[in-house]
Amino acid sequence: MPTPTPLAPSSDKRLFEHVADEITQMIDRGTILPGQRLPSVRRMRERFGVSISTVLEAFRLLESRGLIVAKPQSGHYVRRRSTPPLKEPSQSQPVDRPGSLDVPLSMALANDIGQPAKVQLGPAIPSVDLLPSAALSRALARVARNQPHRAHSYDVPAGTIELRRQISRRMLDAGCTVAPDELVITHGCKEAVYLALQTVTEPGDTVAVESPTYYGLLEAIHAHRLKAFPVASNPKEGICLTALEQALTRGVKAIVVIPNFSNPMGTRMSDERKRRLLQMAIAAGVPVIEDDIYGELPHDGPRPHALRAMDDGSHVIYCSSFSKTISPGLRVGWCAPGKYLPRYLQAKMMLSQMNAVPPQLAIAEYLANGGFDRHLRRLRSAYREQTARMIDAVCRYFPSGTLVSRPAGGHVIWIELPAPADALRLHREAAAEGISIAPGPLFAVHGEYRNCFRLNTGLPWSSAIDDAIRTLGQLAARQVSEGQPMPAEDCGSLAAAS
Amino acid sequence: MPTPTPLAPSSDKRLFEHVADEITQMIDRGTILPGQRLPSVRRMRERFGVSISTVLEAFRLLESRGLIVAKPQSGHYVRRRSTPPLKEPSQSQPVDRPGSLDVPLSMALANDIGQPAKVQLGPAIPSVDLLPSAALSRALARVARNQPHRAHSYDVPAGTIELRRQISRRMLDAGCTVAPDELVITHGCKEAVYLALQTVTEPGDTVAVESPTYYGLLEAIHAHRLKAFPVASNPKEGICLTALEQALTRGVKAIVVIPNFSNPMGTRMSDERKRRLLQMAIAAGVPVIEDDIYGELPHDGPRPHALRAMDDGSHVIYCSSFSKTISPGLRVGWCAPGKYLPRYLQAKMMLSQMNAVPPQLAIAEYLANGGFDRHLRRLRSAYREQTARMIDAVCRYFPSGTLVSRPAGGHVIWIELPAPADALRLHREAAAEGISIAPGPLFAVHGEYRNCFRLNTGLPWSSAIDDAIRTLGQLAARQVSEGQPMPAEDCGSLAAAS
Question: Which of B113, B136, B145 lies closest to A152 in CB terms?
Answer without folding.
Answer: B136
